Amino acid sequence: AGVLAVDKLVDRGGELAELAPSTLTRLDHVLPPTWSHANPIDIVGDAAPERYGAALEALAEDPGTDVILVMNCPTGLGSSANAARTVAELGDEGEIGGKPLLACWLGEHTAREGRRVLTEAGIASFETPEDAAIAASYLSEWSRAQRALLRTPSNQGDDRVDGKAAAHAIFRQVASEGRRMLTEPEAKAAIAAYGIAVPRTLVAGSVAEVARAAGKLLESSERVVVKLLSKAVSHKSDVGGVVLDIATPEKAAEAARSIETRLRALAAGSKPDGYTVQAMVARKHAQELILGMSLDPMFGPVILFGAGGTAVEVVNDTAIALPPLDDVLAADAIDATRIGRLLAGYRDRKPTDRAAIIAALNGLSQMIVDFPCLASLDINPLLADAEGAIALDARIEIDPSRVDEAAPNPALVIRPYPSEWSRDFLSDGLSFHIRPIMPSDVTLYPAFLAKISPDDLRLRFLSLRKNFPDQMLKRLTQLDYDRDIAFVALEKDTGGLAGIGRLSCDPDHRTGEYALLVRSDLQGHGLGWDLLKQLIDYAKADGTGRIEGIILNENSKMLTMCREFGFSVAHHASEPGLSVARLEVS
Q1: Residue 290: helix, strand or coil by DSSP?
Q2: CA-closest candidate to residue 305, choices 260, 365, 264
Q3: How many helices (H) and strands (E) does the chain have?
Q4: 288-402 topology per CATH
Q5: Max Cα separation, the chain?
């Protein structure tokens, strides 16, 4: 039964704990010599209840165990019910030593009493090893999800200002010509602006120019590639528009003539707009990948990653991710594919430059954030090996009518971190940095709350509050940046949390409720004024119609500040002792 549970657990991505030497020594003292001496721990079929207890206590104190699954198979040598009672006595509402405790008592009739005892003690009990292993995997998945909540996808706007300007100029030129499809050189220039490497490419308008361009590139490259340049044909390989492995200028000119011949044969009257000549990238052990973007009717822009090349549809090894990405989310997309395992290296193949692939995914993600006009994008193949990643071909389609729309892309189902709302400021001679809150700011809360008087906490939360559970603090710091925003003011010299301003809106952004909290030792320096001004400015830019706050009547400082900002203040209609401050912002 233990082997069955382990097999299922491993199938679902679980890992067996490696027991500490001290734990193994302790188990040697309480178990028979014939015990398994490894995980899973076989305490032998004649185990009395005391043996269950001793083994569980040892495992609960092992630093390498996160979840403990205890199993019982009925035998004629021990009582399943008594073993369950011992486990129940050690368990504390489903935990032992602060670690989740799961149970699997096998058997239809003999285990019924044991499962009842365990359930009444708050210990999750399962009838089969498979179900127990699945439950354990759920705990692992939940923990991974909780860790993921502490990550903040950044729009990296400050790092891509030049790239955005260069790509915007390209898109505007395409739109001015009434086109939706970028040529290959235009597409490559756009992705290169976002840090995605591309080979050196020269554009030639005639066969003679192709020969000259090839001669120039062959001075530093062994081979070149000649491709069709067409504003009407986006998939060049479908019309024989790509010729590889060219070693001389004469062969390059011949390749250009053959491309034109094939194009005319497939579409009478058609002719190339020109040709591109690029250095041929030959990497023996490189993997062909695809990066793409398309518009989903439900989720808006989505990113595709997977195995690329001409057989991409046949291989069908891809994963979908939602922008904006960060390094970890990009890595998750890579790991969700079969080719992701090949990228880690095998036999004589070195691991690929994973950081370069992640950087390419992040670059694509940032372009999506910056440009609502993007309709579709394919980078295929992205050639990746230990030397890095380079895009050999790119295809981009835009909506010309949306080229000048402002970022961030409103179609994103996940709103990017609004880093543009970060700034430094002075408040009564004190230096602060104000920015939108991040999930990692949860670690700043304990020291912050310790410096706030009980009365200030009461004024903020409208009642006495002494305890701030971990889950509550996570909810305060993990926002979607769409309906909710919070700004933290940080001391420039120490990085300590000085104050927080928060705005929570209804789904239509007609009304947003604000709240402020400033450290008691920093009150009186105008910090609350700056935080409220930041909230008002943000609400105006966001299109929120009105902001309001619910304030205790005795909170004279807050009411005075609201009136100075132009809020209307009135007594709450149904709650004596409270006032409502309202400000129309748009």
Answers
A1: strand
A2: 365
A3: 19, 22
A4: D-amino Acid Aminotransferase; Chain A, domain 1 (3.30.470)
A5: 92
Q: What does the alpha-carbon distance between residue 330 and residue 156 come to, in Å, rounded to a whole number?
A: 14
pTM (whole model) above 0.85: no
What is the CATH number assigned to the segment(s) 419-584?
3.40.630.30
Secondary structure of residue 483 in the 3-state scheme: coil
Cβ contact 218:248 at 8 Å: yes
Upper half-sphere CA count for residue 220 (Cβ side, 13 Å): 9
* Close Cβ partners of 106 (under 8 Å, ≥ 6 residues apart): 1, 71, 72, 73, 74, 127, 128, 129
**445 Cβ neighbours under 8 A, 6+ residues apart:** 468, 473, 476, 477, 497
Give the integer Cα–Cα distance in Å for 445 and 216. Answer: 61
Single-letter amino acid code for the residue at 238: D
What CATH fold (topology level) applies to the domain 2-148? Rossmann fold (3.40.50)
Residue 29 is encoded by which pair of tokens?
């003292």
- Domain 157-279: assigned CATH number: 3.30.1490.20
Domain ranges of the chain: 2-148, 157-279, 288-402, 419-584
Q: What is the full per-residue pLDDT of the chain (586 aa) written as tens digits? A: 888 999 998 888 888 888 899 999 999 998 889 888 888 888 888 888 888 889 999 999 999 888 999 988 887 777 888 888 988 888 888 888 888 999 998 887 777 888 888 888 899 988 889 999 999 999 888 887 877 766 655 544 444 446 899 999 999 999 999 999 999 899 999 999 999 999 988 888 898 999 999 999 998 888 899 988 887 776 777 778 889 889 999 999 999 899 888 888 776 667 788 898 988 887 878 899 999 999 999 999 999 999 988 777 777 889 999 999 888 889 999 999 999 988 888 777 789 999 999 999 999 999 999 999 999 999 999 999 998 999 998 999 999 999 999 888 999 998 888 988 999 988 888 899 999 999 889 889 999 999 999 999 999 988 888 888 887 888 888 888 989 999 999 999 899 999 999 999 999 999 999 999 999 999 988 999 999 999 999 999 999 999 999 999 999 999 999 999 999 999 999 999 999 999 999 7
Are 51 and 99 in contact by the 8 Å Cβ rule? The answer is no
The DSSP secondary structure of 293-357, one letter per residue, reads: EEEETTTEEEEEEEE-STTHHHH--EEEEPSSP-HHHHHHHHHTSSHHHHTT-BTTBPPP-HHHH
- Are 157 and 363 in contact by the 8 Å Cβ rule? The answer is no
Rounded-to-integer distance, Cα 279 and Cα 218, Å:
8
Structure tokens at 261: 């011949």
Phi and psi at residue 169, in whole multiples of 5°? -65, -40
> Looking at this protein, which amino acid is placed at residue 346?
Y
| Pairwise CA distance, residues 582 & 562, whole Å | 9
Is residue 212 a contact partner of residue 249, using CB atoms and an 8 Å limit? yes
